[in-house]
Amino acid sequence: MRQAGRYLPGYQAVRAKVSFLELCRRPDLSAEVSLEPVERFGVDGAIVFSDILVPLQAMGVDVHFDDGGPQIRTPVRSAADVARLELFDPHARTPWILETIATLRRTLPAETAVLGFCGAPWTLATYAVEGKMSKELVAVKTLLWREPDTMRALLGVLAESTVPYLVAQARAGASALQVFDTWASALGEDEWRAFARPALRTVFDGVRAALGKECPPLVLYSQGTGSYAEALRETGADAFSVDWRMPLGRWRERLGAPVQGNMDPTALFGTESSVRAAARRMLESARPFDGVAANLGHGVLVGTPPANVAAFVDEVKSFR
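and the corresponding structure tokens:
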């Protein structure tokens, strides 16, 4: 969950020389920062360094990345705006992420996973419509309530674009593919079922159909969906990455599928002993089950002490 980033000195050194977007577009540099957590902490997989909004830019959305976060100067807020969005060939418009994945696969031992990812259609839509992030998400939810057909069209084209983007990552060497729906928490269950779920189903079914027997595990991360956890299985994902608002074992029991998670990332700001204790509690909650991947419940936060990340990984690896 955001292994490489501003909390690591190696990333900071690289980022001081190039812009964020250039870092994403330079396979040599993005591979370098993707490898740092594996080399530093000994984690079992490398997450390719990129950003969930890269496909939006490839579709013609005016996305700008700076230290204040992504900005979309001309948000998508009408049926005409949706009609202007372009499907894209990832080999032509986002070749760098495929080159980075291929580099990681060549560099890492066979037993170390290479993980590709993308944003879920609903989460991409929140950025596209809002223009920048806000707590209330008024613009995107206004579009949903006032023009539901426009929202469904937007989610549909985002889902359609996501399928070849993930398929290309798998063919480049990704061992698993994770779809991040961070802003699912903005939707109630009824709205999630009506808007987010069908688009997710399109993504997972489309990727699986394109890759057939060569399809790697497809993982859904969603935040704030514990109240309707069982419904997540209807998306067609193979496994679920979950937040920290419910014990990991309870997530595993309710989903009846492999789970990944789910320690609160703010726990890494504690002491080494408290980090280890939190990791043990998380793992103890899931002890009766197999099909559990230890991780955080969201991304590593800026300012996280690297020593505490190391303590978390060590505690997981030593857990019996």
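(Above: one complete record from the training split.) The CA atoms of residues 226 and 246 lie 7 Å apart.
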